[in-house]
Design a protein that fits this description.
It holds the Pfam family Pkinase. This is non-specific serine/threonine protein kinase. InterPro entries: Kinase-like_dom_sf (IPR011009), Prot_kinase_dom (IPR000719), Protein_kinase_ATP_BS (IPR017441), Ser/Thr_kinase_AS (IPR008271). Its EC number is 2.7.11.1. By secondary structure, the protein is α+β, with helices and mostly antiparallel strands. The chain folds into 2 domains: about 5-95, Phosphorylase Kinase, domain 1, CATH 3.30.200.20; about 105-295 and about 320-345, Transferase(Phosphotransferase), domain 1 (Orthogonal Bundle). The chain has helices at about 55-70, 105-110, 115-135, 190, 200-215, 225-230, 245-250, 265-275, 325, 330-345; strands at about 5, 10, 15-25, 25-35, 40-45, 80-90, 90-95, 140, 150, 155-160, 165. The strands form 3 sheets. Strands 1-2-3-4-5-7-6 form a 7-stranded antiparallel sheet. A two-stranded antiparallel sheet has the order 8-11. Residues about 170-180, about 285-330 and about 340-385 have low confidence and may be disordered.
Length: about 400
């Protein structure tokens, strides 16, 4: 597999792997040199597992190639650039731009939370990246601080790791024994398996902004059951540090995806804050977030009076197919069943979501997210370095 050397390997006769930047369930990321063009690159190597059947190995390979195709079709200054996809010894490698600098997770671990102005800057960049991806029919589905890179010297914000991206027109792959997604940053509608859309990425951005401002996701808990409950039915309490950006944070963390703050309004509000230091009062009339300790009730205002009965929000065109989103009691029941089932299976908090062909939820013994290194490292799109996430 590649040309072996004392301290290096050359794959596909071209890319010299020189230093490992990160490792996780989805692969190993190397700092490498493109010997043909004489430039530094990051190379993501799919791990080889001899225990896999031929069909399972093929699914892993297809998943890697899907990531490459998803990112390669995107062109945006805040999205990682894919240079090449090669195979060596029947194992695929994704070749990406090398970004000098660490992830947002590294920044939070070593320097602490950022201020509101910096969070707004990061949010604007990520909204642009998500907008470009969504316009191309690509859902990221794993937006978190580990997958956001901050380039040294330029402060460029780069969205990386499209390893579990969903591409329009491409069937979802079933990965036996592999988890996809990060519980603390996963939207409730996706966690329940009800639906996945661009709005789910926006929920993740809301959680990420909270983490950037306070150091951790508002849904961080000590157990898997606690995370499930916090995301699906618990009171959503943004950290005090989110105060300057609270209208945007609350709008993005709206449980009903049909009422969630959209990307365009979120970006306009963050830009206004960045330019003036003040957040616009609220989104346009008609938008009424319901996150927080309890939905606000204003009986004196017919426009926002809630009808009697379980539904929390006005039914939309597709509401009948989504009772999970309309009935808090049903949300609580589903959350309780998920917690009970996973607790009975002995699933740890590190392993939550397994993506099936139907987008459902299921347990698995491993996690795709590698641990954040103890010391800063230079990597590219990896969750904890400036290399792409394994």
């Amino acid at each position: 597999m590649g040309t072996e050397g004392a301290d290096f390997r050359v794959v596909a006769g071209r890319y010299r792997l020189e230093a490992r930047l990160g490792r996780g369930g989805m692969g190993v990321v190397w700092r490498a040199t493109d010997q043909l063009l004489g430039r530094s690159v990051a190379v993501k190597e799919l791990p080889y597992d001899e225990t896999l059947s031929a069909a399972q190995a093929r699914r892993q390979r297809d998943r890697t190639l899907r990531e490459a195709r998803a990112v390669a079709q995107l062109s945006h200054p805040h999205i990682i650039v894919v240079h090449d996809v090669v195979e060596d010894g029947e194992r695929p490698y994704i070749v990406m731009e090398f970004i000098e600098g660490g992830s947002l997770a590294d920044r939070l671990a070593h320097q602490g939370p950022v201020d509101a102005a910096e969070a707004a800057r990061i949010g604007i960049a990520l909204l642009g990246a998500l907008g470009a991806a969504h316009a191309a029919g690509v859902l990221h589905r794993d937006l978190k601080p580990d997958n956001v890179l901050l380039e040294t010297g330029t402060d460029r914000v780069v969205l990386t790791d499209f390893g579990i991206a969903q591409v329009a027109g491409t069937p979802t792959l079933t990965e036996n024994g592999a988890f996809v997604g990060s519980p603390e940053y996963t939207a409730p509608e996706r966690m329940s398996g009800v639906r996945t859309g661009p709005e789910s990425d926006l929920w993740s951005l809301g959680a990420l902004l909270c983490a950037a401002l306070s150091g951790e996701s508002p849904f961080h808990r000590d157990s898997l059951g606690g995370v499930l409950h916090a995301v699906v039915v618990g009171d959503i309490q943004p950290p005090a540090q989110a105060g300057p950006l609270l209208p945007v944070v609350r709008g993005l963390l709206e449980r009903d995806p049909d009422r969630r703050l959209d990307a365009g309004r979120a970006e306009r509000m963050l830009r206004a804050f960045r330019d003036t230091g003040r957040m616009p009062p609220m989104p346009p009339p008609g938008y009424a977030p319901t996150v927080g300790a309890a939905p606000r009730k204003r009986p004196q205002d017919p426009a926002v009076r809630q009808p009697p009965g379980p539904p929390m929000n006005p039914p939309g065109p597709h509401r009948p197919e989504e009772p999970f989103l309309r009935q808090p009691a049903r949300r609580a029941l589903i959350a309780a069943l998920l917690v009970a089932a996973m607790a009975g299976a002995g699933v740890s908090a590190a392993a939550l979501l397994r993506e099936g062909s139907d987008g459902g939820v299921g347990p698995t013994p491993t996690s795709t997210a590698p641990p954040t290194p103890k010391t800063p490292v230079t990597r590219q799109a990896s969750p904890s370095t400036s290399a792409p996430t394994p």
